[in-house]
Amino acid sequence: MVARNTTIRDRHRATLRAKKLPCAICGEPIDYTLRWPDLDCFVVDHIVPVDLGGADTIDNKQPAHHRCNREKANKLESSILRRSGSLR
Ligand SMILES: [Zn+2]
Q1: Rounded to whole angstroms, how far apart are CA atoms 62 and 81?
Q2: Alpha-carbon distance 45 to 67, whole Å?
Q3: Cβ atoms 65, 40 nearer than 8 A
Q4: How confident is the model at residue 16 (pLDDT cuts 50, 70, 90)?
Q5: How many Å lie between the centroid of ligand 1 and the Cα of residue 14?
Q6: What is the pLDDT of residue 88?
Q7: Whole-number pLDDT of residue 46
Q8: pLDDT digits (tens, 9 = 90+) for 56-84
Q9: How many Å apart are CA 21 and CA 64, to the nearest integer?
Q10: Smallest Cα–Cα separation from 52: which of 70, 28, 79?
Q11: What is the distance in A from the centroid of ligand 1 to the CA of 88?
């Protein structure tokens, strides 16, 4: 497990939150007053997931609903599983 700099992550989260942009995945507005684990709350989505080599930089981050972020993660996970399964 690689140690991650939470200070930078917190700053990125605050920057994205301050912009009050709509969800980058579904395009619907985000209610920034909702709190985790509400499925409609704001989360930081990595455009290219860190697990797939994505950078932990603001350029690789976008705002998303918790719900949309989870769906994206599930889809990525199943496609990765399929890909790695086909290699065997
Ligand atoms: Zn969304």
Answers
A1: 25
A2: 11
A3: yes
A4: very high
A5: 18
A6: 54
A7: 95
A8: 999 999 999 999 999 999 998 888 888 87
A9: 9
A10: 79
A11: 35
